[in-house]
Design a protein that fits this description.
alpha/beta; 50% helix; Arc Repressor Mutant, subunit A; Rossmann fold
């Protein structure tokens, strides 16, 4: 079996020293470089700016600045960075808030070492940690109630009719294979459409596409 290649460069931010140390040891032992550790959100933003990591593990609850605000600031300055949110609470509100802040994934702190390393590698490749179908259920449960004013998005008009159709179906949780079958297209063509949607709307991954589809009213809860 071929060993995994070098992983992404990672920054860990958590106010618990035991968590910081443990996660660093786990990732380092699996060949993933940890470039720094931070004890709060302010340190995380400063260190991300200086170190420019590929992936940041951010605790949601931290002193001085929480993980959600830190995620927003880091991603505003480093759009190619990926963020995974950490929490001890398996609450849907946190998952939706993390995705809306721009995070690409969400982990509980009791994650197994194998799952932690796999999650970091996955997000480091530009993929989302949550399956689109799971994200869709969370958005339906936690997004503002139907009937509210959809959030505007200045670039939505840049999409072609086909791209809007693909984004709508992604928002409903369809995979590339399901999109290809439903639209009678090849998977290669679907991937091209998805890549163009991501580029035009500055989306990081499919999880962000699902959130945007709901926020702009392309998809509505229960629709």
């Amino acid at each position: 079996m071929t060993a995994p290649g070098p992983g992404p460069r990672v920054l860990i931010a958590d106010d618990q020293e035991l968590v910081r140390t443990g996660f660093r040891l786990i990732l380092t032992a699996r060949g993933i470089e940890v470039v720094g550790v931070a004890a709060d959100g302010v340190e995380a933003v400063s260190m991300a700016r200086a170190l420019r990591p590929d992936v940041v593990l951010l605790d949601i609850r931290m002193p001085r600045m929480d993980g959600l605000e830190a995620a927003r600031r880091i991603l505003a300055e480093l759009p190619d960075c990926r963020v995974i949110m950490l929490t001890t609470f398996d609450l849907d509100q946190y998952v939706y808030a993390a995705l809306a802040a721009g995070a690409s994934g969400f982990l509980l702190k009791d994650v197994t070492p194998e799952h932690l390393a796999a999650a970091v590698r996955l997000v480091g490749t530009g993929d989302a940690l949550l399956a689109p179908s799971i994200t869709r259920r969370l958005v339906e449960r936690c997004a503002p109630a139907a009937g509210g004013e959809p959030a505007p998005h200045r670039d939505l008009a840049a999409l072609t009719p086909r791209e809007r159709e693909v984004l709508t179906l992604m928002g409903r949780g369809l995979s590339n294979a399901e999109l290809a079958e439903g639209l009678t297209l090849s998977e290669a063509t679907v991937k091209t459409h998805v890549a163009r949607i991501f580029a035009k709307l500055s989306l990081r991954d499919r999880a962000q596409a699902v959130v945007l589809a709901y926020e702009t009213g392309l998809v509505t809860p229960g629709g």
